[in-house]
Structure formats: C-alpha cells, structure tokens
Amino acid sequence: MKRDEKPSLMRGSHIVAEAAVRSGCRYYFGYPITPQNELPEYMSRRLPEVGGVFVQAESEIASINMVIGASMAGARVMTSSSSPGISLKQEGISYLGGLELPAVIVNMMRGGPGLGNIAPSQADYFQATRGGGHGDYRTIVLAPASGQELCDLTYKAFDLADHYRNPVLILADGMMGQMMEPVRFPTLRDIQKLPKKPWAITGAKGRKSHFIRSLILDPAQMEEHNWKLMRKYEQITDQEVRFETFKTDDAKLVIVAFGTAARIAKAAVKRARSEGLHVGLFRPITLWPYPLKALLELSKQVKYFFVFELNAGQMVEDVQLALQGQADVFFYGRPGGVVPNPAEISRIISRQFFQKEII
Known about the structure:
Blueprint: E1 8-11, H1 12-22, E2 27-30, H2 38-49, E3 53-56, H3 60-72, E4 77-81, H4 83-88, H5 90-99, E5 103-109, H6 125-129, E6 140-142, H7 147-164, E7 167-173, H8 174-178, E8 180-183, H9 219-239, E9 243-246, E10 253-256, H10 259-274, E11 279-284, E12 286-288, H11 292-298, E13 304-309, H12 315-323, E14 328-333, H13 342-354
Parallel strand pairs: 2-3, 2-4, 4-5, 5-7, 6-7, 10-11, 10-13, 13-14
Antiparallel strand pairs: 1-8, 6-12, 9-11
Helix pairs in contact: 1-2, 1-7, 3-5, 10-13, 11-12
C-alpha cells in the first residue's frame, strides 16, 4: 500500500473521514451530534472535491436508510454518529445485516445512558458486539487506539464490508475523535479499479434483475437464510481476528483493554515495568470477532488478568468467556466520561496485586 511521503497532523474525526475518501467512499449520509460533528463537517467539504455526495439527513433514521439505498446500488458508503444516534440507527443496521449489504458505521462514543454527556466513554461495547438491533446478525467491530489506526482500520473497514457483504462498525470515542496526531495516509484509490459487485442493483440493462430482500415470510426459508449468515460469521471469526500484545512474554499480570483505555493501559504497563513489576497488555483490535482463542492461549502462562474499561464492566464478560475459568479476572472501570491517567492504573495494580503478594 503506497502512502503519502509526509505525515499530516489531523484530529481523529478528520482522519477517519479522509481515510474513508481515500478508500473509495463517495457517499456519506448523517445527522449532527457531538462529539463527532467534525467528521460530517469534513465530509461536506471533501466529498464534492472527488465527485462524491454528502447529505445531512433530517434524522439518524433517515440517514441509515439512505445508506441502505446507496449500498444496494453498489456504492462505498458511510455514516457516523455518537451513542444515542447509533441507537436510532440500529433498525437500519439490522436491515444491512439481513440484506447482506456492505457499509461502514462510525461511533464516537459519549457518556451515557440516555443523552448522557459528550465526554469519552466505552459504554457502547454491548451494543456494538451483540448486534445492537433485532434478529440474528453480527457487525464486524474494529477498535482503533491511535490516529494511524483510525486511518488504517477505516481504510480496511471498507474492504472487509465489501468482501463479506456485511456492515462494519468503527468504535472510537469522543477523546479519540478530538485528539490530534500525525498520520500517513494511503494514496487515493481509483474507484474504477475497486472489485465489482455483481449483486448490486444498477438497472437490468439486458440482464436478469437482481432482487435483494430481508422480508422472508416462509419460516423454512428464513431459517436457511439465518444459517447462511451464521456460516459467514464463522468464516469471519476464523479469518479476521486482530489483537496486539505488549510485554506479555514474562508477565505475571496482564491488563486487557481496548481503544483509549488501551493507550492509558500501555503507559501504565511501562510505568509498572520501570518499578520492576511484571505487567503486560493484551489489546483486542477486533471486538467482534473477539480474540477468544488468543486470550485463552495466554492463560497457559498468565493466571491474573486485569480488565480496564471506560464503563461499568462490559468487555470483562468476553474476557471471562475466553478464559473459561483458567485464570482470575479482575475489573476496574470509570463510567460516565472520567478518564484516569496511567499513574492511577499503575498504582491500583501495585497496591492490589504486587504489594499484597497476590502474584
């Protein structure tokens, strides 16, 4: 993949938008909500420069249904919002799953539930990884932890969506959307060279008409469609798991964290290591499919896992499922938008584990 020679200094939401354009996205439909308004603002200027279309819809519900229409026509399309706005889009996301349509959805999470606040949070984990809407379906969920990953995972998200004909969710938060970091972008793709979509509804033009539907009234046919989806999800689970490990080779305790929390945790690990404490980090990059097997494998050498999230405890359930009782799992969370610093996490680990000689 060719990249720009010089890095660009940009805020997170702008990074996602530019990466989407360079990946071939030419349609964006959305509705404003903080803390992600910089993303549609950027798209409103950038898309017309490359022959694309930006529409600020009358609501979140309208925007996700516009995404369905553009995806049916074979376009690379994206929408974005923040927590309560994503909730309003859930019916449409379920339709994307049932219709097997590719799309990229960005959630810059804020504190909740309800309207909550605009501070960074990770409280939408359950919604993202359990489908969020109705029915048996899954969305691929990517959790970037840096400006460069916001770029690379957004770029990758469109390829995954097209390859599997499935919605892909990029799960970040208000802090990540506002922070500024250097990033080297891939060069702009030639959309004419993107893989063809023979299933798309583009006008019959002498060929047999395509028919895309999710209304399947016959129970036996509905069951077969759902099993088809399950087979696809099994393939995704086998082939698309992503994670990072840091200082786990000799670790006695491993912090498990994603996104912004993982950045804090990595700094906490470095701080703990400087004090002679054997601490490591396991960072899932795909929240679905979750790296269950990799975490279980790690439990062969590590018996204590410390889950750190910016919520009241959600990913901790997947960690417990992954470890199958083979290790002890502890949890520390900060729900509501409070973001702790690395010293706080390092201090908790030192006091609760090493000073008490638990490990």
